[in-house]
Amino acid sequence: MGELDILAAGLWEEARFARLPCDAPSELRDLVEDIENPKRVYSIHRATRRHNFQLLVQKFIVQIRDGCGAQNCSTPTCFTYRKRLAGRGPTRRYNTTSARALAIYQASQDNPENGLCPSLRPVKAPPAALNQLVFVPNPKPSLREDQISSASVKGKAIAGVAVSPKSPVIGTQSGLARTRSGSGSGSGSATSSRAPKEPQTSPLKTGNVPKQPTRPSFSVSEEPVSKDYRSFAANVFGSVAFKMLEWLTPAAIEDMFRKTQDLQSGLKGGQSQASNPYSIPENEPFSLPPQSLTHSSEQGHARKEVREKVNKTEKGPNGDHLNHDSLPSPRSGVQRHNSNTKVLTPSGSKPKHQLSIDPFATETLGDDPYSGLLKSPRANGGPTDKSARGLKSTSSKLSLPISQLSSAGFFDDVSLEKMPPPKPVDLKPKANRTQMDGTGGSESSSPGEFVFVSRSGSSNSFQAVDPETEPEDESELPQALSKLNVEVVDFICDVIQEDGAAEKHMLEPPSIKRFHTGDTRQGKPLKRKSRPLDINRSDLKLEWKLFLEQTLFYVLSNPELLIRSFTKKGQLYDSHTLWYCMLRMTRVAPKLVFDSLWMAAASLFAPPKSLQSLRSPTAKLFPKDEESLSNTEAGRLMSICLHALIAAAPVVASKKKLDDVSRTRAQGMILGRSEFTSQRLADPLLDICLQYEDAFSDDLALRLAKRLFAAISTRRYYDAMGESSYEGDGNEEPDVLAPLFSQLDFRNRDAIYICNFTLSENSLHEARVPILLLDWARMVMMSDWDGNPEVPGDGPFGGALALVETMHNKRHELQLEDTQFLSEFFGDRLDVMQMPTLWLSHTRTQQEMHLLDFPYLFNPTTLVTYFRSINFSRMARSFEEATSLQDKIEVVISRLSINRHDQNVLNDRLKTAESKYLMLEISRDNIVRDTFNQLWRREERELLKPIKVRLGKESFEEGIDSGGIQQEFFRVAIAEIMKPGHCIFTVDDRTRMAWFVPGSMEPLWKFELVGLLVSLAVYNGLTLPVTFPKALYRKILGEPVTDLIHIADGWPQLASSLTELLDHNEKAGLVEDIFCVTYEFSAEVFGSHVSREMKSPSTEEEWPQFPKTVAGASSGPDPTLGNPGPDDAPMVTSANRIAYVHDYIRYLTDVSVRPQFEAFSRGFRMCFHPKSLTLLSSNILQSLVEGVQDIDIAKLRKTARYVGYDPTDRVVKDFWSIVKRYDDNMKRKLLEFVTASDRVPSGGIDKLQFIIQRNGDGENNHLPTSYTCYGILLLPSYKDKEVLRQRLATALENSQGFGNP
């Protein structure tokens, strides 16, 4: 029988049970259920949680201040570990306040038991904080004080509590010394039959004057200590409220009791009057006045005398002084009769075994604090629980008396001094009851099992009672509703709001009223009946508060009841209804709701039954009989809890505000930069941002979110284990997130819609849920991130990433844009040079992942920076290797006596390896031929070096390649390759899009070299004057091309026709009659019409290739021979038009150009690390190849710099006035004239260097010139605006050639 069992038993006897109030609507009575298990009682749960927290704080304080003493301790917070690290150096021990602050922080974390040192031993000494308490005897009261004391307590009846005339008694408000009171009459009176039968009549009913309580003979004061009043920790954690965490632990209470007993014995010169060594005598009540816990000077002079008296009383048998460690410990042989609770034990002799009574419990406190609790004291017996420790002896030593365990600040309705002795009653079990743990009831207790019964006033110890001789059961069990639904939720929230019993919170809006029309099949809303006249209104409110809190806890903390409450016909409620229910409950009891859901979410970590039977570490971590959920049940539970988190966020009236706040929080900021301006301080968005911060920083909500996200990775780990253990069994379960996304499929008309909302509310909710899910995932990741790019694949961070990844894969169904997944918070804090390079060697595992494995978290500019950093690193490595080899060759040649011929032979053979650059010498007359010849059979190590181009050598063009010449080379070469005469690409006259020629006569190596040329340009950070459809970039990155939107930019007219085919309404005519389209794909190639019937990928034929030579044409079949006849291809109908569109897109972008594309793709990938391409999306890759074609002159003017000019000069103003009136063609010519490229580089105009430099006064009619390598425009100072316009236009129209570098 553990300490938690004793605590539960005492609280079961003293707790005020929740019962259905008498004015409850009759519809609720069918849902009422008796609670037979103590762990399902909300008051016991709260008390046990407080008790566990205090024990954890005590353990952490001992660990921090004293350590474990083990030689090989490795716990960072353990004093022993710190001392071992310091070696012979001094080690400063934390003081009590600092240790308390650290202990409270550690005990408040998730899974705090993981922070305890495994070698920590139970400590019998009282906490060090007790050393600051001084017990001071109170002076005898004068006659005047007695009269005042008598007058002050007249008319009051506080049984068993001493009232000091100078200070109030502690506990009348905090619950430390509060007594039980009745809960009314009627059906809601749960304590009338359970209340102790006192022999005297209550003074509240008879009006008799109560007996005046005896003045306490001593008080407790706190020893003055030096304190820095500017210290936050000293003023917060050094307060009495936090010290109570140590003062009210079992060991501290025991120590204080011994001190008070010894003090009283010394003052009276005799033995204590109390037979119970833990109970304060009835005539000498024990109090802790608030005034006594101060550093008053009146009590300072008596402390020395008091200590001497106390020391005199602490004598051993031989007169030796006894310190606290030498006092009787909990394991000593002192007999303690410290409880009035009886225990039913089976008949027969049992071996005696003393229970552990260490004040420092050694059992692990897990997420479920009730793992050691017994079944209900009022429940019927059942099979023996092998894990429970039965009572071995009626005289066993108990760790603490129930009176102290239950009164030490753990439970509000329990007295501090002692529990009132109720009359023993028989607790007959109710038949056919089922426990929460699955055990069934029986009429008698099984052998080896014991249950608690009510305490006897005449006995101070546990006694064996024969069940057959027990009196008949007159008590009642606590009650709660067994199920929630929309109507019940509305009723509960309405009652709590009407009674003013809602929790104080910072969620917005603070209260929610019913705003749905409800189901038309439902009746009127539930209402309370009229209050009986003989029942006090305040008592009835209290009954409702207890009952509704118990109901919320009972249902929301139980996974089975929770799922059953929000499902109908085997399906979850629709998302909007579920969000509404959680919204209402979180506005009346957010702490209760989030804590209960957190408890229910613990069942998500139970492994499936199939894994519990395996011999694996998992089977050791979890008991085999633990209740487990299927993935479907776990997904429903997770969806319910996630909707509670969504409901915690403020209710925003527009999607735009949601996006704005989400975008701000994605940057790791509470407020955006624009909100800090004086004009925006009154913006309502400012208040919404602050309300969002209040919701997302709520400790209990964040704790729930972390547990849910941790469960995602855990459940998927279980699925992976199951797949590896049971391959091919055909019993694969759906993913744990499947129920959530099925619920978020708002186009699913088969969903269970409960409440009716307006169309605007439904539209807003469809946008709200995905955005807030992303915000919660980001919040968890930001709070758990340690600043490293390597992140855990499990735990809350890994689960949040898994949710974001799944949502990104389903972003089209969820109507999410790519920008909504951005999390600039991470990109702004990662290194842009070394981190991407190290990522190339990182291997993703289930336990560790890298942030760059999820590129959609970063904005495109950041990804381009990472991509170029990788390329620059590879380029720098190749350059350094060549430089190092060149130096080594020079050293070798200088040391060896080699003739010049041999030196030349050696240099020729090592020329490729020692060359620092990829040198290309290209003539303008044969630029395509020279380019192919220069790139043919180049090694990879050559291609990775920086490129240098010598262009137009035969025409004696001047220019040193510092970047501008190579830009010119790529521009001219690509423009030449795109010409129709080369038969490589075909360019659409309207869209200017370039695409492969189906069945081209050109050999495939040319396509590979063209891909290599494009790769070299991107690798060296250059853009090309070419326009490819997005389908090409999607295919390069391995993304599917299946939708019309994927071909809309390259073939807009075709996409429009296919869309019209899909949208056709057959009421206007049959598809085959209106469109007359056959199920085939055709293309016009070299004047020939080639057509093929479209087939499935498994049966499709290769597209015919046209031979380039006459010999090839005579040896191969004619490509047009395979054209189907007029009646061979089937017609496109309404039944197959969707498949027709899908197959047509596949033939257009894949089948007809497959050999050409594969060759181009091979060449394109030669310069890039395969992993680096995964950073890019199709849009980013397109911007890297083509740049940005839109040129914003206003932005260009803002980024421009000046040399010799000032932005306010006349010439500069005239220049920009002329340029802003240019059309797109002239804008591109200007940009090409200055930078050698007519495209804005990827990243925008901010990445462009545009400098205007003064070049004379213009009197000699000089034209403007440029240094394209450096982006400098040499602009003379012309006399007027018209001359400037003419000279600039002339320069731009005649800029062909490369006269300037």
UniProtKB/TrEMBL annotation:
Ranges of Basic and acidic residues composition bias in the record: 298-324
Bias (Low complexity): 174-194, 442-453
Record region (Disordered): 169-225, 264-397, 413-453, 458-477, 507-532
PROSITE patterns referenced in this protein's UniProt entry, alphabetically: HECT
Pfam families according to UniProt: AZUL (PF16558), HECT (PF00632)
Keyword field: Transferase, Ubl conjugation pathway
Acidic residues bias spans: 467-476
Domain HECT: 939-1301
InterPro entries: AZUL (IPR032353), AZUL_sf (IPR042556), E3A/B/C-like (IPR044611), HECT_dom (IPR000569), Hect_E3_ubiquitin_ligase (IPR035983)
Reaction(s) the record says it catalyses: S-ubiquitinyl-[E2 ubiquitin-conjugating enzyme]-L-cysteine + [acceptor protein]-L-lysine = [E2 ubiquitin-conjugating enzyme]-L-cysteine + N(6)-ubiquitinyl-[acceptor protein]-L-lysine
Active site, per annotation: 1269
GO terms for MF: ubiquitin protein ligase activity
Ranges of compositional bias, category Polar residues: 199-220, 335-348
SMART domains found in the cross-reference section: HECTc
Gene Ontology BP annotations: protein polyubiquitination
EC number: 2.3.2.26
Name of the protein described by the UniProt record: HECT-type E3 ubiquitin transferase
